[in-house]
Amino acid sequence: MSDFKLLINGKLVDGARTSNVVNPATEEPVAACPRASEAQLNEAVAAAKAAFPAWSATPIDERKKALNAIADVIEANGAELARLLTQEQGKPIGDATGEVYGTAAFFRYFTMLDLPVKIIEDSEGKKVEAHRRPLGVIGAIVPWNFPMILMAFKLPPALLAGNTVVLKPAPTTPLTSLKLGELIKDILPAGVVNIVADENDLGAALTAHPDVRKISFTGSTATGQKVMAGAAGLLKRITLELGGNDAGIVLGDVNPKEAAPKLFQSAFQNSGQVCIAMKRLYVHESIYDEMCNELAELANNAVIGDGLKQGTQLGPLQNKMQFDKVKELIEDARKTGKIIAGGDTPEEKGYFIRPTIVRDITDGSRLVDEEQFGPVLPVIKYSDADDAVARANASPYGLGGSIWSNDKDKAYELATKMESGSVWINKHADLAPNIPFGGARFSGLGTELGEEGLAEFTQLKIINMAK
Ligand code: NAD
Fold first, then answer.
1. Model pTM above 0.85
2. Does residue 441 have its Cβ closer than 6 Å to ligand 1?
């Protein structure tokens, strides 16, 4: 038995079995979590399918009221959700609080959008209209690094557009989603949102389910490829937000002391477990040594620990598998570069890795070429900015990137040459619900957020009338 329940067809129900969610800071259980069987997943999809006709026919203003009510209930329970988020995910409580209230803000943002009928042509001979129709049942699949905010990339636009949803959180961070289910149960009609936790065994079934019309997926590139293959048979709509290996390129006119704290934050927020974390940093040779020293000092001074403890800046890695993967990349980097801060794990329990800075490393080493998704940053020396951009673009990933310089024109020119879904200038990873977000190449397919993100939850339908 568990205090947490699945939400299926408007009812809070037990799973077919339970298994623990582990606090990555203590390796102790947070709670027993109900895990759905495939039969329960099918019930959830059936409930969403049955709820679709009425929900899609509900006036959009009513749907907006529901989104606002969800935002209200998230805010009203913000402290409890944030605490739970820290316990299951590991991030510091301040960051968790920001994520929870950000989630509410994302729900509110989508209430400001509409899906009006667009007149394409109104001439003597004809009138042509573009309508945006809901798709049906959406499968929303979320990873473990930002369980709440990434859910809020999907649910509010899906619901606003008139779709119904089956949400599947990541197996290691399901509790905040299940808590949300409890909170929204009476806000939405039965079946409009269903929430099922699994043991990493139901994603493929959800993707392949014949009654699911679209999969909105955030996760790794390897799993995204499986989703694409699984959706192909029924030609489902898919949006894939996948991995990244964002480069930051710092020009020689930057003051290392001033820029280093921002660069550090861009790389180490959420202990580096951010799809758009800065994952490789190219620094001009003229300021390379000074920048490495500044970053090493910040890393040495960073407070790591249990996210519930006041003063903690960096929490643990979220799970053992990721912990082992990052440690392996650090061991490899020992051979290909020079570790000048961190590189070790503290004695105490928990999946902690000290923030690690690696210098004298370059492209071709695993830490630079692969997505580390952890608190370790390779700092690469370059002499020519165009060459640095070419090296940044050489990655199979293309999620984000940034240029840092006091010369705004030069920075802008280089930004136009970076081949990624987002490019920032003198900042990194600035996300907001009104700014469309998506990846190039192996970083994904399609767009989330903004009006473009909303449109992806609809079918474009043209009505073309003779006059
Ligand atoms: P993951 O791909 O292992 O898992 C993501 C989700 O997919 C989980 O809910 C998992 O249970 C589910 N899943 C597993 N097998 C599946 C299958 N065969 N079909 C469908 N779903 C399946 O990713 P992760 O390790 O949880 O997350 C880390 C990755 O996510 C990193 O690569 C990171 O860059 C990426 N990410 C991307 C973004 C973005 O917006 N681009 C945001 C956050 C994280």
1. yes
2. no
